[in-house]
Design brief:
The protein has about 350 residues and is an alpha+beta fold. The chain contains eight helices and 18 strands.
């Protein structure tokens, strides 16, 4: 089903943007993993709306509630359900969308597929659906800490429009990412990004960019050959996020400008382990982790809903002009950083469990 993801660590999200609640069920989580609502809340607070002047002002605390699968602070091996009730829904702000399709949004395609749609804030297509993913990933991270204590996932804003930060995936720290509201660890460039987003917002427009993610401390051997390659699973996970339009890992498209003699990662022994001298492969070879840092980039388009008049058609096929209302991010990147981290954690947790199931080790 389209709302489910994973094999051994399987999640299913539910809820609409302006419905009663959103949330997730997690199946396959190992027992005796310590987890609390407070730990889940920390990650939800990083993606919630209203956290700064450059994101949507929707006032949601996004307080989570664990409904099942946890007893006395530990998972018990049964399905875990986490729910967040919507508090600041304003469906009346989207009344025009009941009869008109927003350009580059999912309004028309949902209507074409189902013959019915929830037009209130985008319904199921809203980024509010990702609350369930982030909540599930908080649990996945606790599982990963048991299997690979050194594993660390750090995502950050690499670029906003044409403003590009120079960041070293091998050394970037979460504290530097969280040091500013745009979540770019390069302070000087972060200030420029913030001012640019403010300018774009004042014009009633939106802007996109790129989020890079570094995953350090992944043991060699995680992943599958052929169809479920680790990079393929990461690509699918990232492109399942709202507003994503591209994915590349390691050297990515830039690698096409090199010859094999320039691009190959030479092996060497270092500290008693097989290592690569360079990391153009991005930590994955043959669909399986090689022990080096996994790093990839995900492209996010400009937010589809803008506060300018746009030509469209209505549900009757007649030409119309739409000026959007409601509350929207002028740039999705700052709040998408924890979403990228969440999807990476879910993929890695799933493959860690799959590896243990097939090979008996992690």
């Amino acid at each position: 089903m389209s709302s489910q993801s994973g094999h051994s660590f399987r999640i299913s999200t539910f809820g609409e943007s302006h419905g009663g609640a959103v949330g997730v069920t997690v199946d396959g989580c190992p027992p005796r993993i310590e987890i609390s609502e407070a730990e889940i809340q920390r990650d939800l607070d990083r993606r919630r709306p209203g956290q700064s002047e450059i994101v949507t002002p929707r006032a949601e605390e996004d307080q989570c509630k664990i409904l099942s699968g946890v007893f006395e602070g530990k998972t018990i091996g049964t399905p875990i359900a986490v729910v967040v009730f919507n508090k600041d829904a304003r469906p009346e702000s989207y009344s025009e969308m009941e009869t008109m399709f927003r350009p580059s949004h999912a309004d028309y395609t949902y209507q074409a597929k189902y013959g019915i749609r929830n037009w209130q804030g985008g319904g199921r297509a809203s980024a509010r659906e990702t609350i369930g993913r982030v909540a599930a990933a908080a649990i996945a991270k606790k599982v990963l800490a048991q299997f690979a204590p050194a594993l660390e996932i750090v995502a950050y804003v690499k670029s906003v429009h044409s403003l590009v930060a120079e960041v070293d995936p091998e050394s970037v720290k979460l504290a530097d990412v969280e040091a500013n509201i745009v979540r770019c660890p390069e302070a000087v460039m972060a200030a420029k990004m913030i001012e640019f987003i403010k300018q774009v917002r004042s014009e009633g427009d939106s802007v996109g960019g790129v989020i890079e993610c570094a995953i350090r401390g992944v043991p060699p051997g995680w992943g599958e050959p052929v169809f479920d390659k680790l990079e393929a699973e990461l690509a699918k996970a990232m492109l399942s996020l709202p507003a994503t339009k591209g994915f590349e890992i390691g050297s990515g498209f830039a690698g096409t400008l090199q010859k094999g003699s320039e691009h190959n990662d030479a092996f060497e022994m270092r500290g008693g382990s097989v290592r690569t001298r360079t990391n153009r492969s991005g930590g994955i070879q043959g669909g399986i982790s090689n022990g080096e840092t996994i790093f990839f980039r995900t492209a996010f388009k400009p937010t589809a809903t803008i506060f300018q008049a746009q030509e469209t058609v209505n549900v009757s096929g007649e030409a119309a002009v739409l000026r959007a209302r409601g509350r929207h991010d002028p740039c999705v990147l700052p709040r998408a950083v924890p979403m990228v981290e969440a999807m990476a954690a879910l993929v890695l947790c799933d493959h860690a469990l799959r590896h243990r199931g097939q090979c008996g080790t992690v």
